[in-house]
Amino acid sequence: MNKLISTYKNEGTRATLRKISHKLKSIKYPSGEMSPKIDMSAIPVMPQLEDLIKADYIHQPYVKPEKLDKDRLNIAWVTPPVGPGGGGHTTISRFVKYLQSQGHRLTFYLYRNNTIPQSAKEAQDIFERSYKLNVPVKEIEEFQDEDVVFATSWETAYAVFNLIGENLHKFYFVQDFEPIFYGVGSRYKLAEATYKFGFYGITAGAWLPDKVKEYGMEADYFNFGADIDIYRPKAPILKKKKIAFYARAHTERRGFELGVMALKIFKEKHPEYEIEFFGQEMSNYDIPFEFTDRGILNKQELAEIYHESVACLVLSLTNVSLLPLELLVAGCVPVMNTGDNNTKVLGDNTDIVYAEAYPIDLATKLSEVVEREAISEYAEEISQKYQATSWEESYKKVEEIILREVTRV
């Protein structure tokens, strides 16, 4: 159990579930003895069965209520169990903090999607400690007196659909196209169905509105930003012979294997370059070249890596990562896979080096970056161009969307 808890803290929910699944499959039973029956409620990352049964969006659709005559709202966010430092909760926390500063009343409600057991108190402690949020966390069963509620993942969308409130406006905070987290099967179809629930979508970036609109879902989006004060270089940039890799082996959409293969090719051509992995602790992985394992880092530690590294390999096979704009502010060249999921959000930005999601092309583009003349001077130029890339306009836009959809004021 201690190992599982450690995995959850360091690698997140999905990695923990994979280890549990692997452990169960490895259990050997005596010859002739029946193996235990599979408990359907234990299928990893699923809504509660009673919520699935109740959420009849076909015959009993959600009807958007009348607009409210108020401009300070009670806004609820339904969250799955919380881990420290997760990208999804980091983004949610940004907007929660801003909405709170504007006079709205914010509350989290914890929804257990049959993953890691967690109490509302434990979740609140993590929000306070890891996300610097002073927002109450309650059990979903305590839900009441809210004007607005956000689903924050496909499992929580089922709970939100079933919440009752005469004037309750339901939104969906969409940070990725979650069906493709799975193979085409039951979870894929159940996640896909949530875009038909009738909620208004607010999405991370411009790629997702087109995806969810295929299901008839209305949506608007916010642009990504960066924490300028953290990632802006504090002194003239002096690059080392170093590149970085956003290594998330337990998050399949981050293309870990593609990255390792590309880096092996790159390292053979440029053995003088140090390669630093960050994003996950890598002690259990046999990597076919010398590298430095930095594990999970805080923002200040990330800024140090970005300032020293010439380039960072950051792969995003679904919605784009938060990293590219942070890297540009820091004067580090992002090398990324091309595709609408990235270019629709970041644009055909000439400061980002796009490559095919293929090891040889990724390695070639990394080599071109490190072979550039006057690398440190170029890094300074990039950094200066992105010093206005803050989150502030996105905070304002999200509040404007909520007020536009919910209030007459």
UniProtKB/TrEMBL annotation:
Top-level division of the source organism's lineage: Bacteria
Gene3D superfamilies documented for this protein: 3.40.50.11090, Glycogen Phosphorylase B
InterPro entries, per database record: WsaF_C, WsaF_N
Keywords for this protein: Transferase
Boundaries of every WsaF N-terminal domain copy: 142-197
Entry GO MF terms: polysaccharide binding; transferase activity
Domain WsaF C-terminal: 241-366
Record-given protein name: Glycosyl transferase family 1
Organism: Streptococcus himalayensis
